[in-house]
Specification:
By secondary structure, the chain is mainly beta. It is built from one helix and eight strands. The chain has a domain at about 15-55 and about 70-90. The model is unreliable at about 1-5 (pLDDT under 50).
């Protein structure tokens, strides 16, 4: 991949296929784009909801009814782009995957290959 001089990503980004979601114990999110190194997603949160850092996520492909559970990650940052609704706001979050082992990483990459669509 030919990266721009300030680009920190190691993997190309892709749009996820329709019906691919990210979730954990408190959030269901729509994936904006994904790479083998991380994910960028959007979700709704209540105005008064505190957003603790995300440390573990699951990916689900609703079309094939398959999932990849318990992916450790680092919550790089989130933003509130300003598109608010009366009782909630949209948040966008960037997460970096931190697989515990090489076999876990290989399995995660294989799953990601099944859910990617077009390059970003």
């Amino acid at each position: 991949m030919n990266a721009a001089p300030n680009e920190r990503r190691h993997w190309p980004r892709y749009r996820a296929k329709s019906g691919t979601l990210l979730f954990n114990e408190s959030t269901f999110a729509e994936i904006i784009n994904i790479s083998k190194g991380g994910v960028f997603c959007t979700y709704l949160s209540a105005y008064d909801e505190r957003c603790p850092p995300v440390r573990l996520i699951n990916l689900i492909n609703t079309q094939t009814r398959t999932s990849f559970p318990a992916i450790p990650c680092v919550d790089l940052n989130y933003q509130e782009p300003g598109a608010d609704m009366p009782l909630a706001r949209f948040r966008k979050s960037r997460l970096r995957f931190i697989p515990a082992s090489e076999s876990f990483r290989r399995d995660l990459h294989r799953f990601i290959e099944t859910i990617i669509a077009d390059p970003v």
